[in-house]
Amino acid sequence: MADGTVEEISCNLSFGGKQLRYRHRSEVLDCDMNFSIYLPPQADVAPVPVLYWLSGLTCTDENFVHKAGAQRYAAENGIAIVCPDTSPRGELIPDDPEGAYDFGLGAGFYVNATAMPWSKNYHMYDYVVDELPALVSSMFPVNGHKMSISGHSMGGHGALTIALKNSNRYQSVSAFSPICSPINCPWGQKALLGYLGSGSGNETGSWSEHDTVELVKSADIGVKASMPVLIDQGEADNFLVDQLNTQLLIDTAKQADFPMQVRFQVGYDHSYFFIATLIEEHIVFHAKFLH
Predict the structure, then answer these.
(1) How far out from the chain centre does Cα 262 lie?
(2) Element (DSSP H or E) covering residue 174
(3) Which pLDDT does position 3 carry in this prediction?
(4) Burial class (CB in 10 A: 0-12, 13-18, 19+), 64
(5) How far apart are CA 201 and CA 197, in angstroms?
(6) Are the CB atoms for 175 and 277 separated by under 8 Å?
(7) Residue-wise pLDDT tens digits, 62-111
(8) Pick the catalytic residue: 24, 36, 237, 282?
(9) pLDDT of 176-234, one tens digit each?
(10) With the CA atoms of 126, 147, 56 and 212 taken in that order, what torsion angle do they form, in degrees rounded to the nearest 10?
């Protein structure tokens, strides 16, 4: 696509609002990107606050749109929802050499890559924090000063780390089944080593700024006081023990005196059935701080 071009892919009416999908040229990712946005009916009258949703491994901008059932609750609460893709895309975009699902395409981990060959395109942190919100605010009736962020799994990691590092931008943060400590799990270690490198011999040197547990340890009083956090984790999640480190986050938050609501949900797994069950509560949670 030409620079500055934004193309509408689809538009569907939903609960009085519009579910839209667009393609645009991303400068920070150096490729064409798709994103989805739900505009509630209130956006026809005045700008509305906006919730950014970050999806997990293997997902695109459409998984949440089709599976979560969030449009009804976004309409009831007058909130727009923006869903970016999970990585840069295209024929020239590098992928995991072995085609694994947990690195490369669909697995951007919401960091700015500094290691080759990933550093040319994999700047998902800048895309989510700066480029996409600027585009959305310029195109749609949303209030760019009233933003919250949420996500699932890898996207839960992204939402939590982005919110903790940018507490002046976001009113609240929530997550489903987040990767709480990437420096302490196989998914995170592979991604951070690949995208960021080893940090001059210190394997976790530059990694800690992308780790929720480490950010909680170093959070100042202002962040603790200003950032409402809600996390839901299914007890039957098959990734809970090896990849997610939820209890480590709970223990760290307690030690750091960082108030956050972390709930274990009996019988629920890692799927979108879990997200669809509780998405209303998350949207209502964010609405308290967005309105």
Answers:
(1) 17
(2) strand 170-176
(3) 67
(4) buried
(5) 9
(6) no
(7) 999 999 999 999 999 999 999 999 999 999 999 999 999 999 999 999 99
(8) 237
(9) 999 999 999 999 999 999 999 875 434 445 899 999 999 999 999 888 888 999 999 99
(10) 80
Distance, CA of 211 to CA of 112 (rounded, Å): 14
The one catalytic residue among 153, 172, 174, 181? 153
Q: Please, what is the Cα angle at 25 between 75 and 151, to 5 degrees?
A: 40
Clarify whether 237 is annotated catalytic.
yes
Whether 153 is catalytic: yes
* Percent of the chain topping pLDDT 70: 96
Number of Cα atoms under 13 Å in the Cβ half of residue 251: 5
Give alpha helix (H) positions in 168-211. 186-196
Question: Both tokens of residue 46?
Answer: 């005045």
State the pTM of this model. Answer: 0.96
Pick the catalytic residue: 152, 210, 270, 286?
270
Quick one: tokens of 248? Answer: 């480590």
Which tokens is 286 given? 């964010």
C-alpha span between 177 and 175 (Å, rounded): 6
CA gap 81, 21 in Å, rounded:
12
Domains of the chain plus CATH, in order, are 6-290 (3.40.50.1820)
Distances (CA, A) of 93 to 13, 26, 47, 84: 33, 13, 35, 17
- Asked if residue 1 has pLDDT above 70, the reply is no
137 a catalytic residue: no
User: Collapsing DSSP states into helix, strand and coil, what is residue 254?
Assistant: helix
> Which band of pLDDT confidence, cut at 50, 70 and 90, is reported for residue 128?
very high
d(CA 271, CA 68): 10
